[in-house]
Design brief:
By secondary structure, the chain is α+β, with helices and mostly antiparallel strands. It contains 15 helices and eleven strands.
Length: 342
């Protein structure tokens, strides 16, 4: 049994970037032998194991054959005869198809080191386009600072465009697509994800409404997503992508703030909008959202209005007769509004 470090962690170490996670490939072993060594089996589609001490993932060397749609549409073959070179050949880009042995020696059968030196994304083999997830992974890799200036090899660009022209992207699960989006939003150049998707024709069916992506990269992933939604008139169907609740809430609050037109809304409509914001529960998120540049012209007014509302003693509503609650609440809001714009 031989163990090799593989994938992005090897690539990042070569580039002088600290790798967050390490992936390992085991050659010359079997599921039974791995369990006997104390590894815990976790893989559903193919044998992946957790190391008994480090808890890092170790996968048996394997080959694959396209057998269906999407990134799960593969039949995997693994036994003790599968070589490291065969395993590396099935990987996406040459820069991710480099292995390192226990002595620190690099195994590079696909010239990944040369492509790292020349800053090139090149598909490891012609089977690249069989896995549609690789197109989104490329877009996500472009959000990493140390990979953002790598160029796409012409043949690989054609393979990615072919994925976009097929129906393969539609067969990805929403959870898997969102995972790539969230990772991109957590990176330092999130806009590169969306620009890559648009330029390479990967917008259908998940990102067909995305046209604009000039966002503030200093913000949190939640704020970036809210800004993306705002720039695209809140037209990206979040239920389709399975967007997590916290991200949806930021988008909703941002949308509600955008609806508030201080100059034209009547008091009653303004109160209705403020009720939707629920500032007593959401004031911290609202302050964060107000950092977005789309609120530059209204930020001071909104913050002052928020502070005035929170300064009012809404606790008196708990002692008021039920039939008087709405009128008392309205008066408190009106008082805060008048103090804001007097």
């Amino acid at each position: 049994m031989k163990v090799f470090q593989v994938g992005g962690s090897v690539r990042d170490e070569i580039l002088g970037v600290e790798a967050n996670d390490k992936d390992w490939v085991v050659v010359g072993s079997s599921p039974e032998k791995m369990v006997a060594e104390g590894f815990k089996a976790i893989g559903k589609d193919f044998p992946v194991f957790l190391h008994p001490e480090s808890n890092e993932e170790y996968a048996l060397a394997r080959t694959e054959k396209k057998s269906g749609k999407g990134y799960k549409g593969f039949t995997f073959y693994f036994d003790e005869s599968v070589t490291l070179e065969e395993d590396l050949k099935r990987r996406d880009f040459t820069i991710n198809s480099i292995a390192k042995d226990a002595n620190g020696n690099l195994i590079d059968p696909h010239r990944g080191l040369e492509d790292i030196k020349n800053k090139i994304f090149r598909q490891t083999s012609q089977s690249f386009s069989e896995d549609p997830l690789r197109a989104l992974r490329y877009a996500r890799f472009k959000t990493y600072s140390h990979l953002s200036d790598f160029n796409l090899n012409d043949s690989t660009k054609e393979s990615i465009k072919n994925i976009g022209q097929s129906d393969e992207l539609a067969h990805l699960s929403a959870d898997r697509v969102w995972m790539e989006v969230e990772k991109a939003l957590s990176s330092q150049k999130s806009a590169n994800f969306f620009s890559s998707i648009i330029s390479l024709g990967l917008t259908e069916p998940w990102f067909s409404k995305v046209k604009h992506f000039d966002i503030d990269e200093s913000n949190s992933p939640q704020l970036k997503w809210a800004e993306i939604q705002s720039l695209n008139t809140h037209s990206i169907p979040q239920h389709k992508l399975g967007v997590p609740k916290e991200f949806v809430e930021y988008c909703y609050l941002s949308h509600q703030l955008e609806k508030i037109d201080i100059d034209t809304l009547t008091d009653d409509l303004l109160i209705d909008a403020l009720e939707e914001l629920n500032l007593h529960r959401n004031h911290i998120k609202v302050v964060e959202i107000l950092k977005l540049k789309l609120f530059d012209d209204k930020r001071d007014y909104y913050i002052k209005l928020k502070d005035n509302i929170l300064s009012k003693d809404f606790s008196i509503l708990g002692q008021a007769p039920k039939e008087d609650v709405m009128e008392i609440k309205r008066d408190l809001y009106i008082e805060a509004i008048k103090e804001t714009f007097k």
